Amino acid sequence: ARAHTNSNWALYILKCSDQTLYTGITNNLENRLLAHQTGKGAKYTRGRTPLDLIHVENFYSRSDAAKREVAIKKLSRANKLKLIPSFGAWYFLEQRPFPLKSHDLGE
User: Is the dihedral of CA 46, 47, 51, 54 positive or negative?
Assistant: First the structure.
């Protein structure tokens, strides 16, 4: 997998410790995940750690990532979970602060 650079955007889904899901986009996945894990990310994820990264999709533009984010946020929880190929393959952010590879599923 190619390293994330400022020209690439990623959509990601986190599973929070209360089992809720958080969807976001970033152009620096490594830094964004670290921010979430340390309470400096979205207000929603504060107090809901540890967080599991359960899904990532890569995009070339912020616009494309944002469009996909809107579409995913409209999905039911069950349909969001269908995006994840294997529940056993989650990354645990406590043990691994950021993913070394991403699941590039596309649309």
Answer: negative
Distance between CA atoms of residues 28 and 85, nearest Å: 23
Q: C-alpha distances in angstroms, 89 versus 7, 29, 32, 43, 52?
A: 27, 18, 20, 26, 10
Instruction: Kindly report the backbone phi and psi dihedral angles of residue 40, in degrees, each rounded to the nearest multiple of 5, phi listed first.
Output: -105, 5
Quick one: DSSP state of residue 31?
Answer: H
- Regarding pTM above 0.85, the answer is no
Nearest-CA neighbor of 17 among 92, 79, 72, 101? 92
What is the C-alpha to C-alpha distance for residues 42 and 104, in angstroms, rounded to an integer?
A: 23
Q: Residue 59: CB partners within 8 Å, gap ≥ 6?
A: 8, 9, 10, 11, 25, 65, 68
In angstroms, the CA 72 to CA 98 distance is 22
pLDDT single digits (tens) 38-94: 999 999 999 999 898 989 999 999 999 999 999 999 999 888 888 876 544 444 433
